[in-house]
Amino acid sequence: MKDSRNHKVPRPLGKSGNVMLIIFAVLFAAVCAFALSLVLSLLNASGTEGSETSSLMTIEAPEYAVTSDTTEFVISATDVSSVTDVSSATDTAVTPDEIISDTTADAPDTTEAVTTEAVTSAAKDEETVTVTYKYAVYLGVKDYGTVRASDKDSFVHRFCVDGEEMLFTVATGASEDYAIQNILAEGYVYDLPAKDSVVTGAAASEPLAAGTIGSVSKDAVVVGTERISVDAGTEVYEITSLVGGAEVTAAEMTAGESVKVYGDSTARVIYLSFVADEYISPVSYTAGETTLKNFLAAAMQPVGTALYVYGGTWNWQDTGSGVLATTIGLSPTWIDFFESQTASYSYINRKDYSKSYYPHYSWNQYYYAGLDCSGYVAWTIYNTLNTESGGDGYVMSSTVMAKTLAEEYGYGTWTHTIESPDELCPGDIISIRGHVW
Fold this sequence. Notes:
The protein is α+β, with helices and mostly antiparallel strands. The chain is built from seven helices and 19 strands. A hairpin with a 3-residue loop joins strand 11 (about 210-215) and strand 12.
């Protein structure tokens, strides 16, 4: 048995010992709490950055609306359906570097890769290029004879470019008074600027020469007094103007044929085409001379060199005066059309609308080809009262024309009744239902 006097037994703590132990425990707990708080704070900070990266990664690249040049991208956040926090989404123009730095500061390298992929895979609105088609022949409206005026803003127009038919819509509509449509005439040659198969303008191509071929050699063609160089790149076609649409076919030149030659110093394209003889009216008049005799002389100008075309000299859209109604002098297109027709000419074909000059569906495709009754009276008045082209015209409904000229323009006195033919005088304008003269 061990001696109990040599064994040290712990003594109970006194009051001061207990206090020290409590203080130590409190300090230890505080240190642990601080460390835990720091760890949680770091984890939360990391989680916040992670959620931003996750938000970026959940954006579906095809949902971006992106336009670009070489340095700038415009991203429309309103078109992004999967952005996590839409409260900060705005339409902003930024560079690719700004996209990365604004959304991924201190983020992992993978974020930059995702951003680059989103930008490069997004649809980009490339600039539309304007192409000018030179020496294009206008063929007419596709499906002429079946399409209706209610669809005229979306008509498809046919052109021949370098021997191939091309289809275009035309940019000008009602708000632009169909400006381009009121220039185009079937079988004529134009320079056409176009974007994405939409014609945005039209200007008549100026020929190097027009007339009868005198001679043809391997390096030149003589037209009238003009000798024009040709080479292996010179193209030759024939234009045939037909009711319902012109045609262009490959051809060869021979002496005696009428042609129009286009190009610069060398002929680029030669069209075998009808070329009217020069016309000089046997009756002279003076534009702007406001006498009864001059009014009657002006009325004689189209006689014998222009045909009746319903809607002729109205505008293409059939609402009033066309450009020819406010032109001083005879229109070359009237003379071309007149001289190219035969004795079988008829302005209307009731059996086949696609072969009719008449505007069965209420727009004037052949506005340029001749004159109708109200167009003729309106052109005569304009040429008597004006010295320059391009003013306000007088084309209107034939039924109300006489009364309108008297009461709204002050050009004479209107009456509804005529007791005797003896009351009529030279220069009187008479309207009945559907006709004026």
